[in-house]
Amino acid sequence: MKKTTENKYFDYWLSNDYFKTPRHYRALNFYLNTFCNKRCPECAVHIPKIKTPEHYSIEYIEHAASHFFGIEHVSITGGEPLLHPQFKKIVPHLKNWFGCGSLTLESNGYKLKRYKGLMKYFDDVMISHYPDNQDMVSLAKKMGLDGRPDGQTLHVTTARRARRPSICRRANFLMYVYGRVYPCACVPSGYASLGIPLTENWRREIAEVPMPCAECCFAEEAADETTVVPAIDKDLLSLHRSSVNYPGVREESRWPELRDDIKIYGLELDSWMAHEAIIHANQSAGEKVLRIHIESHIPEEFHPLTLSFMNARNDNIDSFIIRSQGSSWIRLDLSKYIAGHGEPRITMYCDKIYTGSGRNLGVRVCSLIYEEK
Among 196, 220, 253, which residue terminates a domain? Predict the structure, then answer.
């Protein structure tokens, strides 16, 4: 069966609900599990680091659905939802359980062929585009299933921070995972303990939970001071951490707090940098190497690009030439940047930017990884 419905997911993704006061809660990201068959090194929700991943029971799903009943849109995600051992049994009932008007499946597509007969129960199917799953992406396209835009799925570095963090469109979606409700679709990748137990008063209670944009790798730069989201009071975290989860959900399976051993400021949406970005390394990392994975997607005629790296005194320490589009790995000996120069800060400078897309684009910073020399 070929689906021809309009993409409901983006109706909610592109809405302005996140800026409304009081907050509008119309869309929900619902985690069916925390298992995945990929090990993306910069997974924004730290799935590869979960020691005890789990599939959530039908009782767990029905309990949550009874509280969220009537919400307009539900997006089924994970982990990888198609790995759930009861996926075939669960899917036909989801719309009735949640009482939702539209239902989306988010998947990496590797198991799509096995369950293609169940796709009729979804209004949208969002397949991640990876180099090794293009056969499944093609199958989804032929079936009229894949609502994701063309082009490879982009991961952002979890070290990314905004200088003046602002709430973004990810707050158009609530999230439910670990038996807790979160005020946006990306909270668990930062402050896992900010979720609240699901009660009949969840709409009122979630409105009182602060947004964690100051520590979120997806946070965007505020247009002005009035939209800057302040850092969260750490005392609030202990209050939420002590609250009770849904029975049977393993406490130890929680995502870890967002990595804090390295930060990069100055990246824009999807981890693009313009001319400059600032890397704050850990002082104790002076005897290590920093590997930086970058991608260049700007037109070939703008190449070569020169990336320069300076220490805290603005001494030019390293330079690298990016000769064409594609991926590159850069290795920095951190002892040359940290030792004797006080603050472990590195300025990364790109000599050219492309403005033809309406944005100032240099290179994408995909990941930053410490390694032993």
Answer: 253
Distance from chain centroid for Cα 329: 22
| Beta carbons within 8 Å of 122's beta carbon, 6+ residues apart | 76, 91, 103, 104, 105
Q: Which domain holds residue 280?
A: 262-372
**Exposure string over 237-258, b if 16+ CB within 10 A, otherwise e:** beebeeeeebeebeeeebbeeb
Share of the chain above pLDDT 90, in %: 38
Among 203, 227, 253, where does a domain finish?
A: 253
* Residue 230: strand pairing partners: none
Rg for the chain, CA atoms, rounded: 21
Over the stretch 208-234, which tens digit does the pLDDT of each residue have?
Answer: 888 888 878 888 888 888 889 888 776
Q: Look up the CATH number of the domain holding residue 284.
A: 2.60.40.4070
β-strand partners of 371: 289
Give strand pairing partners of 264.
160, 279
Tell me the pLDDT tens digit for each residue of 60-118: 999 999 999 999 999 999 999 999 999 999 999 999 999 999 999 999 999 999 999 99
What tokens were used for 279? 């890397």
